[in-house]
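Hi everyone,

Forwarding the result from last night's run.
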Amino acid sequence: MSEHPRESSQYDATDGSCSPASSRGPSRGAGKFLLLIAAGLVIIWFLVNGRTSAPADASMVAWVHDYDQALATAREKNQPVLLAFKASWCGPCRIMDMEVFSKDAAAKALSDWVPVSIDVDKQRELARRYRISGVPTFIALSPDGKELAQAVGGMSLQEFAQFLASAEQQLSSPTAHQ
């Protein structure tokens, strides 16, 4: 047997390394698996703790935060109102902020609306008035404040646009103003 380490049977040169086979510890497959698990846990931690939420200025939607002022503007301009009940700790709310409200298409879809962002933790009385039991909750109101449609839960951009279209259809129906 040769004294050269690369030719010695105690070395495994099949993987291109020069490490003795007995000193490697766990197999490389197990190490990769553990690395993937660790990466997954870090991603989950960031999602739960809000580190991946979109910055407030990432929204393309011109949200109003004053409910009473929004209703007055809607009456004055004869525009429907979108009440968006959200919470800072709500994962689906943050996802919609990043994947729906950060898009030009969402801003365009809401261009003839008065969009109101309502934090259920800061505006508890308003959340009670509308009987909000989960977030996000979206309520479409006519310009005179009558409820047209409601949706609970996160939506894709396409689903959100369909919700608005359905509410607009209710608005244009003759029974919406009775």
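Residues 31 and 37 are 10 Å apart (CA to CA).

Cheers,
N.
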